[in-house]
Each structure stands twice: as C-alpha cells, then as structure tokens.
Amino acid sequence: MIQVQAIDGLLLREMVLSGAALLEKNREAVDALNVFPVPDGDTGTNMSLTMASATREVNQKEYARADEAAEALAKGALRGARGNSGVITSQLYRGFARAVEGLEKITPVDFANALKSGADTAYKAVMKPKEGTILTVARVIAEEAMRQAQAAPDDFDALFTTILTAGEAILKRTPEMLPVLKQAGVVDAGGKGLLTIYTGYATALRGETIEALPDTGHAAAPVAFEDDHDSIEEIKFAYCTEFLIQNLRPDAAEADIDTFRRQLNRIGDCVLVVGDLALVKVHVHTNDPGKALQYGLSLGELVNLKIENMVEQRRENIRRKEAQAKKEPPKPYGMVSVSLGDGFSKILRDLQVDCVVEGGQTMNPSIEDLQKAIDSVNAETVFVFPNNGNIILAAQQAAELSEKNVIVVPTKNVAMGIAAAVAFQPDLSAAENAERMEEAAQRVRTGTITYAVRDSEFEGMHISEGDIIGLHNGKVEFKADTPRDVAVEMMRQIVTEDDGLITIYYGADTKEEDAEALGAEFEEMFPDCDVEVHSGGQPLYYYLISVE
Known about the structure:
It is a single chain. The chain is of the alpha/beta class. It has 4 domains: 197 residues, DhaL domain (Serine Threonine Protein Phosphatase 5, Tetratricopeptide repeat, Alpha Horseshoe); 74 residues, 2-Layer Sandwich (Alpha-Beta Plaits), CATH 3.30.70; 116 residues, Phosphotransferase system, mannose-type IIA component (Rossmann fold, 3-Layer(aba) Sandwich), CATH 3.40.50; 102 residues, Hypothetical Protein Tm841, Chain: A,domain 3, CATH 3.30.1180. It contains 20 helices and 16 strands. It has a 6-stranded mixed beta sheet, sandwiched between helices. The protein has a 4-stranded antiparallel beta sheet with strand order 2-3-1-4. Strands 6-5-7-8 form a 4-stranded parallel beta sheet. α1 packs parallel to α4. The longest helix is centred in the first third of the chain and has 22 residues. The chain starts with 8 loop residues before the first helix and ends with a strand.
C-alpha cells in the first residue's frame, strides 16, 4: 500500500534508482524480446545504460526539490542515451522535467501530467512514430494515469495501480499493432523495459527496496562508469580511485561488501563495487582516497591501485583544446562516422573521416559520445553517418545539442556510410553534399550474415537457434548451413544486370582465405561485376556484403 501524499526530490531519486535497478535485473530478458533472432538485441541494455547515466547525475547531490531532481535526471538520461529505446527514454524524462518545473513536491495530478508531457515529448522526437512500441506504452499509461488522477487527485496508490495495470494491458496488445512482433511471438521490448521501470517506481513508493546490481556496465560494454573529465563542469570529488580487493579476510561475508559500498557512498560518488568474496573491483570518486583504501583494507589485500586527479586532468584537457583552437581555424567540412570493427574504421579514416566512433551493432554509442565526436572536429559543418538504424535518433539529438552546423545522413549500415563518404565533394555546398551523400547511401543494397540466437518464425520461414541466417536490407530472408551458402543464395537473388560492384566485408570470426574464396566465387557468378574483399573486423556478423 502506497501511503505517500507527495513526492519530493529525494523520493523521486529513490524511485528512479529502484526503476533502474529492476530494469538492470531484467535487462537480459528485455534484450531477448528483440524481434530479430540476431545476436545483437540490445533494447534492455541500451535502456539500462541510459538509466545508469540518469542515476549517476541525480546522485551528484541531495536534491530536496522535485523539479531539481527531475532536471538532473533528464540531463543525465540525455547525456547517456543509447539506441532508439534509450533516446526515447531520455525524452520521457525531458518532458517529465518540463512539466514539474517550479514544483517543490509532486502530487498525483502533477505526476500524471508529467507522464503525459513525457509521452508527448517522446512522440515529437521521433520522425515517424510507430504504434505498438515503447511510445504507445508510454502514451496509454499517461492517458490512463490522467483519468485516474482526476478521479482521485490525492491517491498515489490508486494511481500506480492504474499505471501498472494499463501498462500490462497495452503491452500485451503490442503484437496486434505490429505484425513483426506477432510473427516473432513477443511483446515490444522497449515497452517492457518502460513498464519494468515504472514497477520499480511503485516498489520504492511502497517503501520496499530493490538491491542494485553492482555492475551496471555489463560485460560486453564496460562503459557505464567511464570518467568523463572533459565535460565535468564542477568536480565535487577530485580523485578517481580504483583498486582490487583480493584474499578477503576469512570471516568476510556478502554483508561486509554491502557495508563497504555504503561507506564509499558516504565519502564520494560514482561508486562501483563489483565482485564476490573471491575478488572485489572498486571504483569511487572521492576527496579522501586514503579513507577509501582504509575501508578496503578492512576487507582484504589491495592490488592494482590507481588514483588520478581529475581536476588536473580537466585543466590539461582545457589547455590542450585551447592550444589546438588557436593553431587552426575551422575548415569548411568535417565528417563523423560510427564504425563496428577495426577494418571498417581504417577504411573510413582512409576516406578522410575526421572522427570514427566505435560502436554499432553490439554497443550503440550514447548521445554524449556522438556529441563529443562532433565537437572534436574542427569544422564549420559536420556530416554524421550513424551507420545503424538504432543510432540515427541519437545522432539527431546530438546534432541538436551541438553549436555547429551538423547534418545527419541517415545511413543504416557501414556500407552505406562508406558510400556516403565517397560521395563527398569539397567544392559543393553543405546542402548539395547532404543530398549527394544520401542518394549514394540509398543506392547501396546490403546483405548481412550471422547466426540465430533463438527459435523464431518470419513470413513462413522457420528459424532454429544456431541457424546461419542472411538479412537483406535489414530483413531476415535467407538461411543455410554455412555463411558461404547463405551468401551465395543471397547474391543470386539480389544482384541484377544493372549492378557493377560487389564488396565483401568479412568479420572478426571469418578467415581471410574464406572471404577471398567467396570473392573468387562471386567473380565467376557475376563476370560483369567488380568484386572487392575487405576486412571489416565486425563482431557477430560473418559478412556484410554491399551491392551497387
């Protein structure tokens, strides 16, 4: 039973921390709801990393006022937003913060209005909103919440009962709105993630606790606690302190590790305590690293100590940037591109791309990552190639935040990004270049070859876990026993007499000799086409093949 009458800043923070913790606990389950059976389903991961950024920001200080806490949450979520689901989540917080501006405490009516404002803001951020997604779940929850708040303006318990009930109902209906969800037999992953967050809110309001998992960075993407020295406007805790604790004392228990974590939270922020009784990894920003070490020594032996003065690092970064700015005037044009492998990164740099952001299928860069990349390019106009449909929205948000003239070319894979970069002409205007780049990217047809991570059904094609599958322009259309067999069948169907170039980019798990053999086979199959073979170095995907 929720007895709370109003939500202040401290309680709002606890609600969001609870929502973030519950989402992280269910991250893999949300990831598993991604429609395509490919090994890069990441909705849960992107939303969790976005929430981690929001919670880090709101933990910087004790926000007593609700509006101040909401503003901090919105700022943190926007900085760390990754993928479409993460960007939409950040927009929900952005709209929420706008609605509660000037409010010291939030009533049920205020909360419902803020949910509606969040949903409206999220819809506006998406160029072509689709129903049956996280947007629908957010909107329906907000609409039902407003009805309930009008009926019982002082009852948070009734409000959250409505929020969770309405959320479950609309989530179950998402397969009816999106045929692709129905085919895959799943509900919308983003909607599930959002409902999980709201469930965490309700848990906190009931006075219950969801213990946060110590590692919110995830093994595949240890970026959740990156130290961002350049963008820290006011460094409250100066020393980044990291160490390992090994050979814990014989009587140590998990409760002692929890106590240690609480001790660190009292002397700093950005606390990360990962591990168990065998080994504990520690990260904290503090003004008293000696005390952090002392607390650690009470548990066991310390190794791999690292203490860095972030204030001095910031000074040095500022000096370096100022010196660079004085040396060179900005050039007319620059380019930023997302890459998903070392081979692709080299190709892009050879094409005079100024800044390559590592990311793509397995780890989407955040809005902040993209904004930093844009700002690092000393140019008046910067073209950005997201090279992934799940990164386009984040790139557009980063463009809005930049003071430069930024043009996002909506490339959906690296092959399209390469084509766009090749099309650049320094003598043309920004608008003319943007048009040329997009046209060049759209002419590229692509096939990607990977393996299925679960059983699925698509347009009459039964897919079993472990099958080698081929995606043509992002749609699962082929399967066979080997990557070579899928590639050959795919090319037979998509190469036309008008095509003149086939480019094979082989991944990290593909041998060069296998890729070269496939290229030789294509040369025999399509004598009128030039065939090129390059190392892409991409994970998870055996081949990315472009045809133009």
